[in-house]
Structure prediction request, 956 residues.
Amino acid sequence: MTACFCPVFVERKVKTEGRRCAEEVKIMTFSAKYLNSVIHPLGIYFKKITGMKGWKIGMKYEFKGNRGNFYMENPDLTSYLYFPLANESGVMSCVSPDLGGDSKMDQNSFLMPPVSCENLHNDKSSRNVWCRIDGSTLWSLTGRSSWQQAQKFSENKEPMAVEAGFMHHKITRTSDQIGIKGEISSLVPATGESVELMKIQIENTSSQYKSFQIITAIPLYARSADNIRDHRHVTSLLHRIKTKSSGVIVTPTMTFDERGHKPNFRAYGVFGGSESQGPVGYFPVLEDFIGEGGSLENPKALQERQLKPEKENFKTGGYEALGGLCFQECRVGPKEKITYVVAMGYGNTEDELIQNCSQFLSERAFDRCWEQTAEYWNHKVNVRLKTGNPAFDLWMRWVSFQPMLRRIYGCSFLPHHDYGKGGRGWRDLWQDCLALLMMNPAGVRQMLIDNFGGVRMDGTNATIIGNRQGEFVADRNNITRVWMDHGVWPFLTTELYIHQTGDLKILLEKNSYFKDMQVCRGEDKDIQWKTEDGERLRDGRGRIYSGTVLEHLLVQNLTSFYDVGEYNHIRIRGADWNDALDMAAQRGESVAFTCMYGYNLKGLAVFLEELKAQGVAEFEMAEEVRLLLAEDPAVYDDIRRKQEILKDYCRTCSHHVSGKRAVVKAVDLQADLLSKASWIYHHIRQTEWIDSKEGYGWYNGYYDNSGNRVEGETKAGVRMMLTSQVFSLMSGVAEDPQVKDIVKAADALLYRKDIGGYRLNTDFHEVKMDLGRMFGFAYGHKENGAVFSHMATMFGNALYRRNASGEGYHALLSLFEHCSNSEKSRIYPGIPEYVDAGGRGMYHYLTGAASWYLVTVVTQMFGVRGHYGNLIFKPQLIKEQFDEHCQAWVSMEFAGKSLKVLYKNPRNLDPDAYRITSVTVNGIPCHCPGEEWIIKREELLKLPDQELHTIMVELN
Prediction:
């Protein structure tokens, strides 16, 4: 038998001068036979190899199959790991490797105690499952007993593993010492029931008969997250606790949170059973279970020789509740298993709660739900690809899944996302649509139209977004906050939509405008507005005013053109994309987003040209909008005059609009937009380019609240921000020769391979109180110098747009290589919001980076994208991305058809060397006139539905 040799990564923790530092000592190679002889079965903490404590062999996850499912040994030795379990009906759960985490329906309906990231290892609450063995030995299937925790860092550590796929998760734990193996499988049904399910399976791995008795210990919090420290005890007095057949139910008498004292109608519960039995008793009160001096990791109730659970129909109130289900003691033979299913659920009535949960209390029902849930989400994540890197292909499945998670969780409700109270932000509405256009474009049209209902007539937008599509809510606290970048994103998403679908007429669809007390771009209040007036803008006759999508886009971008500071760039106001640039409201300016407003104005002009070709020669718009159009271009250099124009416009529509409509010719509107865009491009190119002493250059992107340029070579050091380069490149402000200079500067000043690529900024060595709170963060964390995935991904996108394929690939590959190396990033598959100074991925799952990464891979890297609804191919795959057969493919939905675009690169060339020589559709040659290879949409529509169609593209 040939010896198998395995690389083993050894890490040593040392202390130096009061600081912890990690030193990678070396990589050792051992034969599999040797490893098996000296190493604990799952390979953690080996005195025999190292001769000392404090060393470990790092573990990585590995993918199983072709769906993205993964397996990881001993994830409990990685801190801050958590996994999302949710459905589209409102259940939002998360589980850690030891089944910590929480479950909730919204901010005010937490079934388990709310957790933040530090609670994952500090709290003793979990979905714990205890097994009493032979009436005395206590063993936790989740490892959450005090004695198992004490052994965690010794050679006696119990091996455990996690296997997971989209919305389903299983942990396995083994004790050779006791002779027992436990599995807990968890999911939230994709079929929509308001429950989280666990299947508990325990196997006797010894050669002797044993008696097993299972007891669950799941804390039932049953109230608002606000009460975690605001009246925590008082709100427990509202609890009414009862036991019913198969479960424990908690129904608080009222809610006691920021909404006031109101009757409660939500019931919470934990139920369990199997085909043949339910619980024989219950531990419904937390303090009775843990006992005096006990804890959830060492409960006194389970130390009794004879357990004393409560019986069915027990009632009490005024205590913290526990989903403590006690099952019958069973005698289990060698290699035999026992199985139970537990349902943790919600209901608007107790009967509804019982119905939601009871239908799943059998192994057969659970297994059917497991398969349905796995299949449902696998089908939803319908973008697939194959390159020369299988790990990248499967990792991309998780990146594609992440926008779906953000539609469910918003930007809250996972352990790192402990800010806000649910819902998504303005940018999220538009950026999540980018991913939908790749995976499920059918419903995007109405979604976009509805989203425009959040735009105010002054060009700003609602910042509180309701639960229903197109629902926007006035800020009752009257907190004025204007993000100056918000006008950029709707056009970018609408632009992609128009090109993917050919639906240019969406620009002529109408919607209302959002209305609340905030007017004049946050500088004034409309004291005439009352809540009862509603949250839609009205005209002088009190009628709700509606304008076209085009008008909404014009309002957003034209107001931004005039909203300038002393350097004639758009003012920062509350913040821009970087929320932490929030201390420059008076004199701060954003050159970076001025670039993008120029891009948008130019893009709108291009769409007007296409509309003219389709016979649309003039447009109706609110008479007030004309104030932003008919100006002599000489005004553009006059800062004071621009500010006056904006004020005059905002005053005319601060309470209502007149309702009068003006007719504007397409040719005049197009000329005006192009003139403004051209001025922006010229102004930035002339004033903001920085030449470095090192021979490269970049664009300054900001001015601070002291009126000083932010970026450049200063006495404090070189200052550069990635955002400034992304948008100068993406907009086209950066001229072709400047692209290489910007890349050189970014590589020299921002790039760090060991933490995933391009950092957001250099170290300013200053707590910059005249720019933003980010400079109060330690450098290398979050917005201050971390590798911020969103902007690093957009940097890659911008480079691809400028045909810098190698450089764009480098930006995306750096993120992938770091994030997918779980020994370094310490996360499950996917892309986090950022990578901190130590290399840890932070704020996993809920990030706009995922949408941008997916869109960049499909439309730029593979170059499969629409152009006014037609399908074009402009691949920028480099030669190492093709497999051993010199092929690479992506499958996706386009024009309502399932397409697989297969590239063949037989000569193994790079993008600057290959060109498309032929295209076939299902083996039939496609004849494309001209130099560009385009398949007309009408040809695609002729293809049969419900089939996967292969488009083969030859590169030579």
Observations:
- Residues 1-58 have pLDDT under 50 and may be disordered.
- The first strand starts at residue 5 and ends at 16.
